[in-house]
Amino acid sequence: MSVNSKTQELKQRMQLVLQGGGTKAVEKQKAIGKLTARERILELLDEGSFHEYDLFVQHSGKDFDMDKKILPGDGVVTGTGTINGYPVCIYAQDFTVAGGSLGFMHAKKICKIMDHAMKLKTPIIGINDSGGARIQEGVNALSGYGDIFYRNTIASGVIPQISVILGPCAGGAVYSPALTDFVFVVDKISKMFITGPDVIKTVLGEEITQEDLGGARVHAEISGNAHFFAESEQECFEQIKNLFTYIPWNNTKKAESFPAKKPKSKEYKITSVFPSDPAKPYDVRHIIKSIVDNSEFLEVQELFAPNIVVGFARINGDTVGFVANQPIALAGVLDCNSSDKAARFIRFCDAFNVPLITLEDMPGYLPGIDQEHAGVIRHGAKILYAYSEATVPKITVILRKAYGGGYIAMCSSHLKADFVFAWPTAEIAVMGPEGAANIIFRNEIMNSDNPEKTRKEKIAEYKDKFANPYVAASYGYVDAVIQPSETRDYISHALEVCKNKVQEHPKKKHGLPPF
Ligand code: HXC
């Protein structure tokens, strides 16, 4: 065979694989608004950077006539490329080939590219579009999932792991995304569930559509399984590229620095976005935007547990992670979901060298039978654990209310915040003045000739004594009481002096966070 015919043969072999599941299957994919696996990778990665491997891997199934079938690439595309010029490892399941189902060799391809990512210390991106374990391959398919979950766990905190759900992700397959750091979903395209509508109907007699059970909105708003929600695949890829500007490539690096920019002070002036009436709620995202470079804030889990806001921004060009109570949602209380959301974000920041800025304004943990029975004790403890364990620079600003357990939990000096600043509007106390006065002055109020008048006087007395930052400052729990307009300056300086921070905990195999 001449060189020419050999190169010709390679071309032909490649062409067969690159067709995926064939024209009909590709048309079906497109008809429901989905791109093919390779199109997705090309859209996401820098132009011309994608290099595909293991194109000629074949499935190993023998039963149910599988030995007579050819499944191009065994239904998954794997390779390396760059995003914003930095290397990534990537895989995308190809639904046009046997429904992207995961057989033994399909899983081997995924595991191989995950192993590369760990060795090369690059992020791994998994695009999920699959009917789950390949039914014809039985336990060999299941073993593949186990191998992936194990790798997800070992890679956790070492390299960023991104899951993109662009089709079905059913059964045990959902646990790979659940073990990764950020899950991206697209409206009407993503579907995630452990047991689908048919099983639910058979077992429980309940009827529900795939969309209502595990569509993108459900996971972005209700379950909290998704971190980013997009209207289209293209928007989703832009979100991923943007996220990669804020996070480092692995846990030994810091995120890339950008030129420092001032906040957009016309739109987001701290004194304009913070209300002068202490009873009035405000959107804490506006406060964040009044502090950070170019007023740009990438919110994570925007639609889930909105009573806490988490996300990335930059100060003087360097990435920081914000955790902020949101007064316009449930008065910014901590509950089960907001504690989970914050704790997970704090741990990501700590694992990947992102300093944490906490903005506090909250009346405490949410009271109620539902919350107690849902385990607010266990969930609430996660935020305490995550902050206490975090050794990245931790800077807290108390804007208004810092009551009770919330005062402690929101990165107080007791959990080893490096710096705690308070605005003059801060109220640091065991509980709100109304509740406190009703308890400690109960007898005086009851026995008074005018209980309502006495109650008001006692509330005012308590407010005067405790609803300010100066008592906490007098004990050194607050490092400085600052003017709101000085916030960016104080945070910038704190970040600067924390640059060489080194903090170590006692050696142990691992801690036992309240999972
Ligand atoms: C083998 C599969 C498959 C699977 C789909 N296909 N899922 N082949 N194993 N798990 C094949 C179909 O037979 C079909 O092949 C092609 O993929 C396209 O599938 P369609 O059904 O035509 O597509 P659609 O109508 O869009 O429906 C998609 C779907 C449905 C909703 C995902 O295919 C489905 O319900 N699949 C099974 C989902 C499931 O129960 N998975 C759980 C497996 S157990 P042809 O040749 O006709 O084109 C599991 C446990 C893992 O995952 C545990 C890990 C811990």
Describe how the helices and strands are arranged.
Elements: H1 3-18, H2 23-31, H3 37-44, E1 51-53, E2 76-83, E3 86-93, H4 104-120, E4 124-130, H5 139-155, E5 161-170, H6 175-179, E6 182-186, E7 191-193, H7 197-204, H8 210-214, H9 216-223, E8 228-230, H10 233-246, H11 270-273, H12 284-291, E9 298-300, E10 308-315, E11 318-325, H13 336-351, E12 356-362, H14 369-374, H15 376-389, E13 394-403, H16 404-409, E14 419-422, E15 427-429, H17 433-440, H18 442-447, H19 451-466, H20 470-474, E16 480-481, H21 487-497
Parallel strand pairs: 3-4, 4-5, 5-6, 5-7, 6-8, 11-12, 12-13, 13-14, 13-15, 14-16
Antiparallel strand pairs: 1-2, 2-3, 9-10, 10-11
Helix pairs in contact: 4-5, 13-15, 17-19
Bound molecules: hexanoyl-coenzyme A.
Domain CoA carboxyltransferase C-terminal: 259-508
InterPro entries: AccD/PCCB, AcCoA_carboxyl_beta, ClpP/crotonase-like_dom_sf, COA_CT_C, COA_CT_N
Protein name: Propionyl-CoA carboxylase beta chain
